[in-house]
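seq as requested:
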Amino acid sequence: MSASETVRYVAFAEEHLDEAVEIEQLSFATPWGREAIALELDRPHVSHYVAAVLPSGRLVGFAGMWVVEDEGHIGTVGVHPDFRRRGTGEGMLRWLLRRANELGVRQLTLEVRRSNAPALSLYAKYHFDRVGIRKGYYRDTGEDALVMLCSDIPGSAARPRPGSPDHAAGDDDGDTP
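struct tokens:
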């Protein structure tokens, strides 16, 4: 990405639906359909979604979590293939963590493919620990999902875990939910 392609992180809105469906299809073997994503917009008391948007308005990623009382679950993180490994997923994760902190979430869970090393590294960086396995969770391959838990929402929202591979003192992208 060039400086003119700085990604902004904003609340996901109906205007992002078509591009979100495209990102789903490019990213996942069993993508959510338009209706499933649109349904999330109809549940603002539970669903909290972020859109990663270029200055042109193009959606390059989206992620979402569900919150019930003081528990949250990250249900999806999708980045357009042209924008992977450029910090877009990390920016969205940070946005979700800040939002979770604002909402008083005490613990946040997610599932991730055992083989998804970049995602595992990112989640570990932001205080997610492996707490379980869902055998055969992914229907397309039968691959297991690792269940990860973050119970340090304020800490993870504020800073990466010291000693993580990408940790930098004072690292802050300035984005706010």
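The helical segments are 17-27, 34-41, 88-102, 117-125, 153-158.
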